[in-house]
Design goal:
α1 packs parallel to α2, α1 packs parallel to α4 and α6 crosses α10. The termini are far apart. By secondary structure, the protein is α/β, with parallel strands linked by helices. It is about 30% helix and about 30% strand. Strands 1, 2, 3, 9, 10, 11, 12 and 18 form an eight-stranded mixed β-sheet that branches. The relative contact order is 0.15. The radius of gyration is 22 Å and the shape is globular. It comes from Flectobacillus roseus. This is Lycopene cyclase family protein. InterPro entries: FAD/NAD-bd_sf.
């Protein structure tokens, strides 16, 4: 991998605008495919050397990223409503944690020997078509053109269309270190709903790295953000009152906002431009989970590219499927919309909904459900364990709205 220093007229086969999770994952899968010799430019505003995110997910099978998994567990604590508090085995799954710094280093190492892949540290100003109808990326250092495709993870929707359900997953986490051993590193807390809900969906998760170190993160599903001091106060209160820890040091801080929306996402805004990651609608609308989903979608995308030998103009069938969101099943999207409406309209306590899901079903089955791997019959069985009336109300609203928007 080299640093881009070419002139403004430089042309690449593929340009990846944004070198985060989706952009670097795509570069990795391309480098492992039959398109490994394609000329690729990755553009990002930073070198991606710091740990700025933590990704948690579950898997039943080993993957290429297993060597950088910081921690993995075979069960999780769940503290919910109606005094339900249990350590839940997750059977065939493993709950895994990857630190973004390790992920970035892994990708760079994998593609560093590829002279055909260049990395440019610069800000993306726009992704558009030039006067010859070719895709290009404008940066502060110039204009870079793609002979085939620009993959754009920077042009995120504002998600402000009031005709759809719009929520946010916002969070702040501290990696804390204590003097005395206080954490059981074999037992993470995935959901702790014991915090005050304030008519929202609020929970804390605790992911231990060692007996003296853990990530403690406060998370909210709502339609509005809070003052930064509120997250700090909640974390301080949880650590002192729930974890009974008074002497600790904050080693790292992470915070973020993830859209939870059923607003349609345009994956191909123009010929030769394909949106990926959050910009491409890869985030699961009802939960905000994205790591596993992003890998699945990008693997499918690269397989399509291989069949077309990388030529954007040669595979009409695949392009149509991208536009229609084939990789996101319509039935699953409907379930997401219904749950979003239930939470947004506060038709029933989110705390109780998640408690019912995990207490009345096999936990591994819920993880399979959240990964969209369950069948229709399995989905219906799971939905039977949540409050029927609130979900029927939301189902009626969502289906009516979708029909109305379609007819328009």
């Amino acid at each position: 991998m080299s640093t881009a220093s070419e002139s403004y007229s430089s042309t690449y086969d593929f340009i990846i605008a944004g070198g985060g999770l989706a952009g670097l994952s795509l570069a990795y899968y391309l480098s492992q495919s039959s398109l490994e010799n394609a000329k690729i430019l990755i553009i990002d505003q930073s070198e991606k050397k710091e740990n700025d995110k933590t990704w948690c997910f579950w898997e039943a099978q080993p993957t290429a990223f297993d060597e950088i998994v910081r921690q993995k567990w075979n069960g999780v604590w769940f503290h919910g409503s109606r005094n339900f508090s249990q350590f839940l085995p997750i059977d065939e799954y493993r709950y895994k944690l990857i630190r973004s710094a390790d992920f970035y280093q892994f990708i760079y190492k994998a593609i560093s020997r590829k002279d055909n892949i260049s990395f440019l540290i610069d800000s993306v100003l726009s992704v558009e078509k030039d006067i010859d109808n070719r895709p290009q990326v404008k940066t502060t250092q110039g204009i870079f053109k793609a002979s085939q495709i620009v993959f754009d993870s920077t042009s995120r929707s504002s998600y402000d269309d009031t005709r759809y359900s719009q929520m946010l997953q916002h969070f702040k986490g501290w990696v804390i270190e204590t003097v005395a051993p206080v954490f059981d590193e074999t037992k993470p807390t995935m959901f702790d709903f014991s915090v005050e809900q304030n008519d929202e969906c609020r929970f804390v998760y605790v992911l231990p790295y060692s007996p003296t170190k853990a990530l403690v993160e406060f998370t909210i599903f709502s339609d509005n953000l809070l003052e930064d001091s509120v997250y700090d106060d909640e974390l301080k209160s949880y650590i002192s009152q729930r974890l009974k820890i008074t002497n600790y040091r904050i080693d790292e801080i992470e915070k973020g906002t993830i859209p939870m929306s059923d607003e349609p996402c345009i994956q191909i805004p123009d010929d030769g431009i394909v949106r990926i990651g959050t910009a491409g609608g890869y985030v699961k609308a009802s939960t905000g989970y994205s790591f596993t989903r992003t890998q699945r979608i990008l693997k499918n995308l690269v397989r399509d590219l291989e069949r077309a030998k990388g030529n954007f103009d040669s595979f009409e069938k695949e392009k149509k499927s991208w536009r229609k969101g084939k990789y996101i099943p319509n039935w699953k999207a409907l379930l997401d919309s219904i749950l979003l409406d239930v939470m947004l309209k506060n038709r029933h306590s989110s705390k109780d909904i998640f408690t019912r899901l995990f207490s009345k079903n096999r936990p591994a089955q819920i993880l399979k459900f959240l990964d969209e791997d369950t069948s229709l019959l399995e989905d219906l069985a799971i939905m039977h364990t949540v409050p029927i009336i609130p979900f029927l109300k939301s189902a009626f609203v969502v289906i009516f709205r979708k029909i109305w928007l379609f007819l328009r």
